[in-house]
Amino acid sequence: MTDLSAAGDLRIVGIDAARVTFPLRHPVRFGPALYTEREYVLLRLRTDAGVVGDARAMTRGTPLLEALRPVAERLVGADPLSARTLVRDLRRSNVPGQAALSRAHSIADLALWDLVARAVDAPLHRLLGGAGRERVEALAVSGYLIDVRGEDAIVDELVQLKAQGFRHLKLMLGAREPAWMHRFLSRCRETVGSDVLLSLDFHFSLASLDEALAVCRPLEELELAFIEDPFPPLHWRDLRALAGQLETPLAAGEDVTDPVMFADLLEGADLLRVDPSTCGGVEDAVAGIRMAAAAGKPALPHGAVLVGTQLAAAFDAVELMEVAAPVDTGDRIDELYEGPAPQLHGAWLTVDQTPGVDVRLEWDRVEAAAVSGWSV
């Protein structure tokens, strides 16, 4: 384990936050959920020694920038190590607001870990102990903008991804009429063959256990690797009930706002999704991974590819990291980064050894793109 004491000599002297928005070329729909833009909050912590810590998170329709400010104000003057404890104490100090503030606590925690990692000149996976992996297999996500691109384009995309070497493909489709779902997924299964794992993500779009059974039971014959997020994470009892009536494994967890919810979801989920930008930060994501491992189940990070790859390098329970098939949605967030970028070779991600947690922000570009922001 890397010695973190050098980070304790630093003091946080200023914090900058910015909100950036990118209109999407076409609305993205998953069942009742409709997305017309991608909105992010970007955060930078500045220290007296010039070392900085960066973090990013999607707002997902939440007032993240506003919620983050009182958290940031408490961090100024603290050293990064004690500040991580302070963020956790802030969660306990406002239990009624925990769900609403979880993303703010998460992005602050990610920035603090990034600051510590840069201060001690190590990537996150070394700070977490590291499992020694130099590369991580990737799962490719397809199906975006199917209503605009058409079914044939998605099937062709699956063929290309298989040719690239991906052994696991996931379709983002949301809730659709059961007969259509069975017909289209049958076509996808026939196209990619039985030597490729195929999964399905509903993105919380099924309204009830009865609807989930009506849609999912006909899909059993396709031998999907897993069905993800039929319900929101708080509906873990429905997930458990659905798991008891299906042979297909279920996956859940990406929008958990308190790590205790991981234990509930594991009663029905065979694969646990963890996202450090929503569940409370790095340590809470690690808690979820360890719960999954204790239950003999794998975990799959959600969100930033670099962060997820670092978690995979640190824990054997993380077998894969997902990457989206390249589709020009209009999101230009990558233009605000100075690096590093995820290195994908075939279907394998190289574990980045750059000191830090995630990308490094080019703050001049961030300020130019920001629609609002603040500094403390």
UniProtKB/TrEMBL annotation:
Domain of life the protein comes from: Bacteria
Q: Domain (Mandelate racemase/muconate lactonizing enzyme C-terminal): give its ranges.
A: 151-249
Q: Which InterPro entries match?
A: DgoD-like, Enolase-like_C_sf, Enolase-like_N, Enolase_C-like, Mandelate_racemase_C, Mandelate_racemase_N_dom
UniProt-listed SUPFAM superfamilies: Enolase C-terminal domain-like, Enolase N-terminal domain-like
- What this protein is called in its record is Mandelate racemase/muconate lactonizing protein
Give the source lineage, highest ranks first.
Bacteria, Bacillati, Actinomycetota, Thermoleophilia, Solirubrobacterales
